[in-house]
Design goal:
By secondary structure, the chain is α/β, with parallel strands linked by helices. The protein has ten helices and 17 strands. Strand 3, helix 2 and strand 4 form a beta-alpha-beta unit. The two termini are about 25 Å apart. It binds flavin mononucleotide. The site of flavin mononucleotide has 27 residues, from strand 4, strand 15 and helix 9.
């Protein structure tokens, strides 16, 4: 089973950090990796999502992960959507939800759809909590804090960029080693529903504003799936001057239905859910490799952090061998907490 309990609310899960297996006796070195001017003990990390607060970060920090991401926070408190928030997907048909969670799913094969709505604690709360999280990590571990802007009624792109920058500044002040600008979330300002990264000009405005606010502090941007290599290239080239790195790919946005065709996540604003886990690997791998190819071609030189469907140690190794600077997991962290330890032991 997974350590996140899909039958419980997000708030319940956040308040109940998991009882994880003990730190393995044998935890060989990483291999160490140099990233953002720091020596990191292991290139396997946890992406935004599984770690909603310092207690969860502390629980996982013992288990050998080199990068730990504090789940996306905002400038205003926001509740999660009501349940369901996580449904298991049918094998081979990820847009169709299983009627019930499988009893003993194979961690390497789990594919699920996520619809949480980017909840956030109040800024006063998360700013204090990020400080606690940083204090619980070792020298060789990197704390990434993911931030998202919140559009205000009547607000424009400038307001949104300012809001991203405010969160980024708070995250950096609280101790984030790296600030992750979450661009793979819905842009609710436009006439057509779109993800922010799909609007290059808006994305550039946001990361430009964050860079001006943070000075030389490390900043990365999280991207979703682009429809073509060209789109990815154009987006990355536009954003690279403001960034220290990219993390991709966020879960694939799909309409997810139950077996009778009814939406698996009823409610306004929940038309699309993020499919995560094993089944999205090939899609994500191709996109990460495309970005690595553009970097090799010399367009820009920025870190590339791979995420999306990395549910086996072999996949993590393949992404690193392909040139990714780090391999991050969300689903595997929840389904297989000892993932980083097994990666280190398999060397
Ligand atoms: C329970 C859960 C919550 C997530 N929450 C966030 C989030 O707050 N911010 C974000 O950028 N991505 C979030 N994600 C997406 C993951 O960071 C990751 O991009 C995606 O799950 C694909 O990786 P995976 O196949 O290893 O799960 C979440 C994923 C899961 C499973």
């Amino acid at each position: 089973m997974t350590v996140y309990r899909p039958a419980r609310s997000f708030a319940w899960n956040a308040g109940h950090p998991p009882k994880l297996p003990a730190r393995p006796r044998r935890l060989p070195a990483g291999p160490p990796v140099s990233l953002f001017g720091r020596q990191i003990e292991c290139p396997v990390g946890i992406s935004a999502g599984p770690l909603p607060n310092a207690q969860w970060i502390q629980a996982y920090a013992r288990l050998g992960y080199g990068l730990l991401t504090y789940k996306t926070v905002r400038s205003v408190a926001r509740q999660a959507f009501v349940q369901p928030n996580l449904v298991f997907c049918r094998l081979g048909e990820p847009s169709v939800a299983e009627a019930r969670a499988p009893r003993n799913p194979d961690p390497a094969a789990i594919t699920w759809a996520v619809s949480l709505g980017l909840p956030s604690a109040d800024p006063d709360e998360w700013r204090a909590d990020v400080k606690r999280a940083r204090a619980r990590l070792g020298e060789g571990q990197l704390l990434i804090v993911s931030v998202a802007g919140t559009p205000m009624p009547g607000g424009d792109g400038e307001q949104l960029a300012e809001d991203y920058a405010r969160c980024a500044q708070w995250a950096a002040e609280a101790g984030a080693d790296v600030v992750e600008v979450h661009l793979s979330c819905p842009n609710t300002m436009g006439e057509h529903p779109q993800m922010i990264f799909e609007d290059k000009a808006l994305s550039a405005r946001i990361v430009g504003r964050v860079r001006r606010t943070l000075g030389s502090h490390p900043v990365i941007a999280k991207l979703g799936a682009t429809p073509s290599p060209r789109t990815l290239h154009e987006l990355a080239t536009r954003l690279a001057p403001w960034l220290d790195g990219f993390i991709l790919v966020n879960g694939l946005q799909r309409r997810v239905v139950k077996q009778d065709g009814v939406p698996a996540f009823p409610g306004v604003g929940r038309e699309l859910a993020g499919i995560s886990g094993a089944a999205i690997y090939e899609h994500c791998r191709v996109q990460v490799e495309e970005l690595i190819a553009w970097r090799k071609a010399g367009a820009w030189n920025r870190a590339i952090l791979a995420v999306g469907g990395i549910t086996t140690v072999e996949r993590a190794r393949d992404m690193l061998a392909a040139g990714a600077d780090a391999a991050l997991v969300a689903t595997a962290a929840l389904a297989d907490p000892l993932f980083a330890a097994r990666f280190r032991q398999a060397r």
